[in-house]
Amino acid sequence: MWQQAKLPVGKMLMPGVVSHATNLVEHPQLVADRILRYTAIVSRENVTAGTDCGLGGRVHADVAWAKLRSPSVDVALD
Predict the structure, then answer these.
(1) pLDDT tens column, 43-53
(2) 3-state SS track over the chain
(3) CA–CA separation, 32 vs 5, rounded Å?
(4) Beta bridge mates, 50
(5) Among candidates 19, 31, 25, 10, which has minimal Cα distance to 73?
(6) Who is most buried in 19, 32, 52, 59, counting CB within 10 A?
């Protein structure tokens, strides 16, 4: 969709790059790849990574925190 639509000036995207639907902790490179798909379209400054949905109550708290720690993506994005 974002390849065809223009992002309004002053707006950012917060794509869900970490899933709430699985207990699997995403590999940092997978998260980076998901982020990079968006940055290639709307530029790096206009993307902030987020979760698919709220993690609370959907996965165990330890898994939720592991998922949020996983995107040590700085290395993967450079």
Answers:
(1) 889 998 888 77
(2) CCCCCCCCCCCCECCEEECCCCCCCCCHHHHHHHHHHHHHHHCHHHECCEECCCCCCCCCHHHHHHHHHCCCCHHHHC
(3) 23
(4) 16
(5) 31
(6) 32
